[in-house]
Amino acid sequence: MPVALELTGIRKTFDGFVALDDASFAAHWGQVHALLGENGAGKSSLMNIAAGLYAPEAGRMMVDDNPVRLAGPSDAAKHRIGMVHQHFKLVRPFTVAENILLGNPLSHVDGGFRAKLRQMETAIRAMAAELGFEIDPLKRTALLSVAEQQRVEILKVLLAGANILILDEPTAVLTDAESERLLSTVQQLARRGSAVILVTHKMADVKTYADQVTVMRGGRTIKTVDPKQTPAAELVRLTVGEAVTTPKRGTGTPGEVRLAIRDLKSAGSGRQALAGVSLEVRAGEIYGLAGVGGNGQSELANAIMGLPGALEGEMRLEGLGDLKAASTSARREMHIATIPADRYGVALSGALSVAENFGIGQVHTGRYGSAWRLASSTMEADAKAAVASFDVQGVRSIRQKAALLSGGNAQKLVIAREFSKQPKLVLAHSPSRGLDVRASAEVHARLLAARDAGAAVLLISEDLDEVMSLADRIGVMARGRIVAEFGQPAERQAIGQAMVDHA
Amino acid sequence: MPELVPDMNPLALPGAPPSAAATPPGTVPSPDVGPSGVADAGATGGADEGANGVASAVTNEATSGVARTARRVPLASRRFTVEIRQQLAWHWQALILAIAILAGMAISAAILIAAGIAPKDLLNEFVMQTFFDKQNFEAVLFQAAPMIMIGLGASIAFRARFWNLGLEGQMIFGAIAATAISLYEIGPETTRLPLMFAAAASAGLLWALGPALLKLRLSVNEIISTLMLNYLASNFLLHLVYGAWKDTKDNFPHSPQFRAFERLPDVFAGLSSAIPLALFVALLAWWFVDISRAGLYLRFVNANPRMADAVGVPVRKMTLTAVLVSGALAGVAGFVVAAGQEGRLTQSFYTGYGFSGILIAFLARNNPLAASVVAILIAGLFVTGRSLQVFYQIPFSMVQLIQAIIVICVACSDFFIRHRLRPVVGRGA
Questions:
Q1: Is A373 in CB contact (< 8 Å) with chain B?
Q2: In chain B, where are the structural domains located?
Q3: Which residues in chain A are closer than 8 Å to B26, comparing Cβ atoms?
Q4: Nearest CA in chain A to B67
Q5: 0.80 surpassed by pTM
Q6: Which of A7, A57, A272, B91 would bridge with A266, disulfide CB 3.0–4.6 Å?
Q7: Which CATH code of 3.40.50.300, 3.40.640.10, 3.30.565.60, 3.40.50.261 fits the domain covering A3-240?
């Protein structure tokens, strides 16, 4: 197969930090080429260069053996390179057709905006039918599910004429079934002649769908191999450089009921995100809540965290009474540790320093000085110690912005803060989302350690593997309710069935 | 740039299998790529690279053995891309800021020269006379005192993400309350001045309380509510000075003159006590935002209120506190103008302060100590403006023009703090 896109000797630094060094790789027409690596290995940076978002400091880029220089994504589009980003670039109040028209203004088509919009609608319908997507071009993007939004992104780059398609962590936000569907669709696209580049850290996706895989580590491309011929263990070894040990769950020793939720409902009429959730989490156990995203998990997590939202029903914490009435700071006093799914939305402030992000968890206790005078040095010393003991990497200075940390390290910083006092209740919502193998294993080990230390852990995750491997008991959430509960050892099939039956 | 995808059919599935290694049917030739493609690989070395301004790629390209002729990359294709900068060391930020201010001053100087001021007089008037002449500098500081307070008021409200545009209204009520204490002779002579101070602070605070509660309880947009309340305040002020509080001695629309003990005394000849008062308040504000625990909370509220709430920061309490402090500071600024400068309540003492306050907070990035310095510089501009008016017949609006130019330059410099420009390197088009 001829080479579609070739990058050679790419170097890129960010304020002195070398993100890419001598990275090279070549994707071929008609193939799915996977780019495998941990968080911060440089996969996204390399692909952002291919998509024209970053300019490399050194190196060469060839499309169809023609050297190219890209000054932006529109340049990349001219070379028929299209990228679907991990974080979607959609205008939420716009309809699907408007969003796609925005990226591809159909300037060669005569007629006004309305005419172009109508033509785009027909084009979308045709293309969606080809790919087997169910998309209503007139629907507003804000109303679409994550999987649907992703389809819009894919349609957008395809309709702009892309035949070199880059997908950055496309399955990170999808369920098993959705991922399977998406990946077989992109495989089909490749079979029809396009070049598809799949950025991922999921070994299974690579094994099943990729024709070639290039492994990246520390900003360098390590090796390109055929995934079908290479054992998974070898791929893991190439990715992380050494073997990662997955933490052993062991058996928990459940104690008394710590968190009791009875018939918790979203207040008001209309469609309720929470439609009567009842569950109990005992001290010393991990309760895993599985389910397809958007079935009330976020609302439940927000309710436990104390974020705004009117609620009916009961939510009690053993020994401390009504949780519903407690403020967020009062909840902190109750030793509730939260690891939210939306890391930079509600867990960390990217604009503030690592030390401040760490210290905010305990500053109200007076540990970091009185209300009159903040003891910054104590706070920084504590943060330094926590960064070291929780192995948060990439902290060049304790005063650097938290936004500079990679996903896995940002998550470790959150855990370092939340676990700085012995937690009684841990709420972890998709704690390993966007994290690589090694970081996920570390997060899981922390959750298990918290359980063994007697905390009640509520793990909400859409990743069934994660729930299966960590939880002592498993609940399935669908349509704002717990529809089934399983003890361990649970049957994967049965859990999956419960998710589907009530969807 | 013309649309370069003339053959694009949105209905067509992408990428019919490419015919050969060269140009597949879908690939559109870019304007800068000649038809020769890689045919001339290795033809020339890196000699032409320097001319194209892509020096960093020289070694790499020379060693990679692929090169192109100079004609294929015209000078016009020396392009730059914009990237988001993640972090910039503070001294670089300071340098960029300094360059911006210098650029603003250079433009302003050019305009003043065009208006007929000799370049050598410019330096003399703006720098030597204003900041190095003792008497003039005292005048600058005297002018700066209320500006420092109003700038601090704006900074603290903005730190809580509360856009307090009602500084003038709060200032008016501060002055009215202070005047009421004087007019109705409340309290003994010795405590009259502190009482006026306290009354002004409370009145400013109360005038800010309404919009704060409206925002926190009912999510009423504070930009509108605070701005509109300014009109209420200014018309109430006119109602007083044209009506019940009109000076019976001269029948002008202002209140009677304050008695000597109701005016801010001089620390020593020429230096009003308003100046040390303003500096003391600036120190207090610095303590509040940089030293106290509330300051840390405010930084979180400023960065992301939702996240702050989730980690247990008392967001509503902090917002309310910041707004009330802001209102109180504006009220005190009104007191300083009334009891320090005018010696009575006048009908338009407040004009321009609200705008200046916002401007000072913006230029100082809501930092109290920087706000004090900026306030002194702006006051210098005002004092110079007045002398330009007298000696050169330059209209006072020129001062506002200069202010605006400097602010725009600083606002533009933000682009370079948040972004970096990079030359596009690599091969080909």
A1: yes
A2: 142-365
A3: 80, 161, 163
A4: A67
A5: no
A6: A272
A7: 3.40.50.300
